[in-house]
Write a structure and sequence with these properties.
homotetramer, 210 residues, mainly alpha, 0% strand, globular, disordered N terminus, disordered C terminus, transmembrane (chains A, B, C, D)
């Protein structure tokens, strides 16, 4: 079959992805439970404060998904063309992103070991899928903008691996030590992730050219 | 009435469509039921595993809608201008896409013959509407980018027909044999669909020009 | 205060509007009720068919909102710049569009006179707000692309008035005759609306220039 | 690490933000409660009117979020490039925007002092975060389009402060006087805000150049 046109540019793929990200992070709030009927006559501080777990998992998931979005944008800043395979790898990644409100809701309702592990597994899988996507485009000619050296591509890949690694490590921590330890892991790792990215950028700006 | 401007370009039509697709695939997850109050004190493996049917229909619908999106993008990669008729054909197609979370939810709650057939009918209708859209733009002058031969247009149309055909065939399978057979059909057909598309593209890249 | 830059171009206003339209038409399906627990063991034809009213109001609202979107796109095809006033008129219009899933849900649950009138009022107000938006931009210099004569602008305005007029007329029909009459009105008027638009376009293409 | 490409342009950041805004204002309507089963047989005026509080908080939140969107667009009309820090400041702002449907739902269900204060706090925080974003980009070289004087930047900052100030002031009003006073504050302040913006623009157009 003749190729009568160049491989499609990723504009619509990116638009669809942004849409899925935007919706996934915005429907998270639907998991913050409203007080049920008895509370209807008077919302007290107790009711609002009683939702702290929902609010905590809202904030956590928002930041983690935000982080995936930043990484996803970084990937597609370097992708010039894409093919059916990239489209479908991206689709499976989006399927994983769009699923995240479910483990978030579970975690908000219950801090038991099953919810925590299920949450950590979901995040690990999502992050791993983004890594696979990057791995694929960086290994196949013609997908990346020119000027990215293989070393640089590998470095970026390592950066995308940080999030799934962090969540992956929290799974045994929750299973064999204590679910609360997983929460601590996530918080610490996330803070260090943002710090790392910001400082990398800072150092880049600090240097003149290199 | 004078035509003081060229027929509108499809930018906003595509943006609206991408929005509807993004939302339709993201609200699918809302159908994955959270455990109700009694489970609130402790989410057990049983509860999470008990949702397998919801998760299965989530994955299935995500991939099928993703496939419709890929086909829709393919159609509009070839459409340069569009008219009221194209807008409305597209609107009816989007109406069908946006409806899909409902049969998905039904299927997730219940695997009986009615849910299965209802799901298959919904998918068949949606796919058929996309085919009608393509059929319309390919038969009317001035809608397609130049350089698409009638043969090529017919070939593309056949490709869009694969999904509704597959779901259409599963209707009698579910009605007269067993609902479980429909599930098997969908899985097999979907895998072959993706394989076909990827291999078509592969062969295209393999050839030098043609 | 100095104007250091030209009045903003409507790209983001249009993007926000498309987002609101896309979400409003997609969340409509959430109003189609799932069968409750007893039905969980077996979804029967009765259950699916019993939702006909929900499906009817889904289709109706989808088409009406789709029609508002077509009109909105038509308005902004002619708007080159926009100001705070246009932004806020558009915001109030969007507020009305985003509200439509509520009367749709009411109508789907109950076909009584209150639901029908509430639905008709909501649609009338939304359509009237779009007309006001057009009226504003067409009366104030510098908002429209050049080349639109006042006559043409008035003609477009009349076209946008058709939908609110149709729904407005169905209010007394429902109140003083029968709610069912309103349904008939809407159907007839909508069909004629689409027919009108398509035929206007057809005649435009038929003529050479004019 | 070498900077092999310029700091990313804000197109996708803006697209994600528009998506979050569009969804946040559209899911507000899901908080308008449908009458429950007993009302199913007949929706009466009482039921519709009984939802006035939900409708009021819908309109209020829609306009306030709309106002944040207008301010956000104004900010990014002046931002040419952005960095990780801007991305994350924006992400935290979006997290606050996406959270707003929750206090809106609380306010719609109950007009007690806790709901009112919680709502006012949420709005104050969101507005303050937008101010912080502006403060950051206006203080760091290379983020803003050239031609914005420091005076002008400070003036814009003050404009963005109006909304959080208004909501901030209503907190003691609700706590120490009466929750109803907060409602009055919001209404008055919002009207004056819109009036201010429109009149500022008007005066700008009135002058020839300056």
């Amino acid at each position: 079959m003749a190729t009568d046109r160049p491989p499609v540019d990723p504009t619509r793929l990116v638009a669809l992805s942004d849409g899925v990200f935007a919706i996934a992070i915005t429907v998270l709030v639907l998991n913050v439970d409203l007080p049920s009927e008895p509370a209807r006559t008077a919302v007290t501080e107790t009711v609002v404060i009683g939702e702290w777990r929902d609010v905590f998992s809202y904030v956590l998931s928002f930041l983690v998904i935000g982080n995936f979005w930043v990484d996803h944008r970084h990937v597609f800043d370097h992708v010039t063309v894409h093919t059916q395979r990239v489209t479908w790898l991206n689709m499976v990644f989006l399927m994983s992103v769009a699923f995240l409100p479910f483990p978030t809701a579970l975690l908000g309702d219950d801090g038991g070991v099953v919810s925590v592990v299920f949450y950590a597994v979901s995040m690990t899988v999502t992050g791993a899928l983004l890594y696979v996507l990057w791995w694929y485009v960086s290994r196949h000619d013609g997908h990346l903008v020119s000027g990215i050296s293989p070393d640089r591509a590998r470095l970026y890949g390592l950066q995308y691996l940080l999030t799934p690694l962090a969540f992956g490590l929290s799974i045994p921590a929750a299973l064999f030590v204590d679910p609360a330890l997983a929460f601590v892991c996530w918080g610490l790792l996330f803070v260090s992730l943002v710090a790392l990215k910001v400082s990398l950028e800072g150092s880049r700006y600090g240097r003149t050219d290199d």
